[in-house]
Amino acid sequence: MKKLIFSLGILCLFQANSQEVLSLSDAIQIGLQRNYGIQIEQGNVQVAENNNNWGEAGRWPTLTLNLNQNNSITDNVKVANPFSLQGQIQSNSVVPSINLNWNIFDGFRANMSKKRLEQLQAETHGNASIVIANTLQSIILGYYLAVLENERLEEFAKQLSLSRDKYQYVKIKSDLGGAVTTDVLLEEGNYLTDSINYINQELAYRNAIRDLNVLLAERTISKQYQFADSLNIADEAYQIEPLRSRMLNENVDLKKQYITQAILGTATSLSRASQYPTLTFNAGFSENRGRNDLSRTSSGRFQQDSLSRNPSAVFIPDFTNPLSSVTDTYFANFTLSFTLFNGGKIKRAINNAIVNERVGELRVEQMETSLDRDLHTALDRYNSRRQLYAINALRESSARTNLELSEEKFKNGSINSFDYRDVQNNYLSSSILKLQATYNLINSKVELMRLTGGLIREYSQ
């Protein structure tokens, strides 16, 4: 028993060791900076911002520079044309060119595409807001859960300390002949029971700390903290209509659904753009620089026969030097195209887009109805937990007063160990219930803030 008393004393002192002080605002700041989900969504937002420009939408022309280099060898072993050359002809050419392609009019598709890119960017911001709101809710509840388990541990430590003092007190009385063995065994059993409860609660506290460290993306998973904020909450009353108005205007899930619906409307406009004609402009310049090596060729049969009859009358070209040529080409073309018939694909695409837009409207209405139900449920739960918190606070206060009075009565011998133990258990139960009621009330308030957009408004600015 002496070893057990010493070990549990060390466990009680463990909480008082020097630890990093962590407030709720610090936890939120750390979580927003480190959280993996938020970092992923920030990358998606950056990609959407990069894509949101007129070049991606197709407003600007495309200018390309090309360079072709061609080489060939033509071997005229036997020719039928009397004017053609016989032998090997080596040809080399370099063709630099520049081309401009521009969709001058495409049924306002570029304007619709740019609007869709803006909406996609807004949608990624909406997704990021949802992740941030969920992260904030998890961090706040995770922080207060760790605080709850820590304060529970303190209550069990108080109970353990009382049991230890009582056990030692009765044991001393027994040694002096003032207490019987049954009293010693009773207090020993109570002390062992409270020791078990303390050890189990310490495990729950360590698990809550690990969960909090995961939310904060802390690599040291068992890192300990000294919590700057206690488990308390201001008593506030809420009315349904102001909450509902805020929900419809600021709920992050609903705002994102509105953006998705707007994207579906833009998709309908894009599908209608195919009904218009398309005017494109194509211009360019190319230069063909060629070189032909005819040094390995001989003149045709016609030239040879003419040379044998009248050598002075036939012009014989000089094939010893390569022949070079330069050809410049300029062009500018307009193309007007209009789809007269393609099996009804355009009409079906427009009808499908209209149906998808209507489905999106139904989803918006469905979400509004679901959120309205969730808000009424959350407000009812919050009001009920306010009442439960008030009752448990009064119960805990009465139990504490009763414990203080009973301690004096026990020392004076006015009540026995069984009655004093009942008072102890009643106080412990009341304290634990009050702590749980406080956490439940905080949970309900955070839920209301999540539904009405208050988490983003209050904690992420």
Give a description of the structure.
Strands 2-3-5-6 form a four-stranded antiparallel beta sheet, with no helix packed on it. Helix content is 64%, strand content 17%. The protein has 461 residues and is an alpha+beta fold. The protein has helices at residues 2-14, 24-34, 36-51, 54-57, 109-175, 181-215, 240-250, 252-272, 301-309, 345-412, 417-451, 454-459; strands at residues 20-22, 62-76, 86-105, 225-227, 278-298, 323-337. Residues 12-16 have low confidence and may be disordered.
Can you lay out the helices and strands and say which pair or pack?
Layout: H1 2-14, E1 20-22, H2 24-34, H3 36-51, H4 54-57, E2 62-76, E3 86-105, H5 109-175, H6 181-215, E4 225-227, H7 240-250, H8 252-272, E5 278-298, H9 301-309, E6 323-337, H10 345-412, H11 417-451, H12 454-459
Parallel strand pairs: 1-4
Antiparallel strand pairs: 2-3, 3-5, 5-6
Helix pairs in contact: 2-5, 3-5, 5-6, 5-8, 5-11, 7-10, 8-10, 10-11
